[in-house]
Write a structure and sequence with these properties.
Strand 1 and strand 2 form a beta hairpin. The strands form two sheets. This protein has an eight-stranded parallel beta barrel with strand order 3-4-5-6-7-8-9-10, surrounded by five helices. It is built from twelve helices and ten strands. The protein starts with a strand and ends in an 18-residue tail after the last helix. The protein is an alpha/beta fold. Helix content is about 40%, strand content about 15%.
Length: about 325
């Protein structure tokens, strides 16, 4: 396993991180989830990403139990807040009240005294940004959070957060966690250049495009039983990729992966890590063997000619804006 700095911060993280969205406490039993975490640790993965909303807070509990007994200083544990986790009007968003209550819940469920990174899971249009950033800054000063970041924020929202933090002397956000893959390249236009310019680390989720880039979904065929496309919590994120055109093009990546000596999953993960602005790619798993396969993408260097061939194959299947418009886009 190789390790990278989280942006320009001093924190080093494993370039492949383990995440438990739609797995722990949801798709798989706890014994299997613990086996996947153990496999991640065996592979040298030290960075674990979760969120309070995953499986209605159960994912944090499962991860906390799976990591219990592991030397805390050897881990980087990330969590997030924003989405509703209760019935109350303040059980959501990025208000000071919800941030302070949420962090204590996450710490309790994860069985830890602090989070290495606490992230705003989405932008809150109903709360003043100054209020959110001051609450985050207080958590850093209290030692309950070491670094703060955001997830799926637009470029102008990140810029505003950096400006306010500078003006008010708050601890600066150090990272953004967006979706990024061979198929979903929305962040390349504005968000990624901004993060690179400002020294923010990019922790990408869904590097395998919800599993589509593994090649297991075939054009003209029903989705495999038990796959994310058949799971209620994950299917809404994947359906945009499940067209016959996209699935046919993905199948054409298989000989390219074979030439590189990689599995389809490894090729997809390694592709995201070729970008120097990316600090880590988050992978999930329902079986330990998936973790071992994914971890082998660490340290892989892809030839520029191969990257160009990937773009040629995918062509108009590449999503470059949030509205879903697809057009070819070269890597920069």
């Amino acid at each position: 396993m190789e390790y990278r700095h989280l942006g320009r911060s001093g924190l080093k993280i494993s370039e492949i991180a383990y995440g438990n969205w739609v797995t722990h406490g949801s798709q798989v039993e706890e014994e299997a989830a613990s086996a996947c975490v153990a496999a991640a640790l065996d592979e040298g993965i030290t960075t674990f990403d979760t969120a309070d909303v995953y499986a209605g807070t159960r994912a944090e509990e499962v991860l906390g139990r799976a990591l219990h007994g592991v030397r805390r200083e050897s881990l980087e544990i990330f969590s997030k807040l924003y989405w509703p986790v209760g019935p109350g009007v303040n059980d959501r968003g990025l208000s000071r009240k919800h941030i302070m209550e949420s962090v204590h819940g996450s710490l309790r469920r994860l069985q830890t005294d602090y989070l290495d990174l606490y992230q705003a899971h989405r932008y809150d249009h109903e709360t003043p940004l100054e209020e959110t950033l001051r609450a985050f800054d207080d958590l850093v000063r209290q030692g309950k959070v070491l670094y703060v970041g955001v997830s799926e924020w637009r470029a102008e929202q990140i810029e505003a957060a950096l400006r306010i933090a500078g003006e008010m002397g708050f601890d600066r956000i150090v990272s953004n966690q967006p979706q990024y893959s061979m198929l979903w390249r929305v962040i390349e236009a504005e968000v990624l250049p901004l993060c690179e310019k400002e020294g923010l680390g990019t922790i990408v989720f869904s590097p395998m495009a919800q599993g589509v880039l593994t090649g297991k979904y075939l054009p003209g065929s029903a989705a495999p039983a038990g796959s994310r496309a058949t799971d209620a919590s994950g299917s809404r994120f994947i359906k945009g990729f499940l067209t016959d055109d996209i699935l046919s093009r993905v199948q054409q990546l298989r000989p390219l992966a074979d030439e590189a000596g990689l599995s389809m999953a490894q090729l997809a993960i390694a592709w995201t890590l070729q970008n120097p602005a990316v600090s880590a790619a988050i992978v999930g798993a329902t079986r330990p063997e998936q973790v071992h396969d994914n971890a082998a993408a660490s340290g892989v260097r892809l030839d520029p000619a191969l990257l160009a061939r990937i773009d040629d194959v995918l062509g108009p299947a590449i999503f470059t804006d949030p509205a879903g418009t697809a057009s070819p886009r070269n890597r920069s």
